[in-house]
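Progress report, Aim 2. The chain analyzed during this reporting quarter is listed below.
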Amino acid sequence: MLIFLSSKSTGNDKISGIAKVIDGDTIYINNFKIRFSGIDAPESYYKGKSQICNSLTSGEKIFCGNISKKVLKDKIKNQFVICIPENIDRYKRIIAECFLKQESISSFMVRNGYAFDYVKYSKGKYQSEQNFAKENKLGLWAMKFEYPWSWRKINK
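Predicted structure tokens for the chain:
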């Protein structure tokens, strides 16, 4: 089910419905591919590769993109998601901030350490959430990792 709601306060349309998780920072709602604005999550599948992190204690290789994706799936389940579009990127994805029961999904992912504040686009909007995750060694902060934007650059 897809609903467009006009928001009089911002003049933007909202995309709402049950989301299908593609990655730790990307969902589909019906035929709309939505990328969360201002954050970046490890890649579960990018040009045939999956991003790997290493456990700090055992050195074990961990598919951190898959972990990020699973955390988002577990968070959203079959619940109603509301997204406020901000832009469209070069890949024709809708860039939006999305909410689950009035909680920013982007804030949740960064605060729990499964995505990062993508300062290039966020201008530090999620920095306090990232600091919290980093200080408490939550999620990926308990591992050795490369930032997704650096990993993609190496794996072009």
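Residues 1-11 have pLDDT under 50 and may be disordered. Helices lie at 64-76, 105-111, 119-122, 127-135, 148-154. These observations will guide the mutagenesis work planned for the next reporting period.
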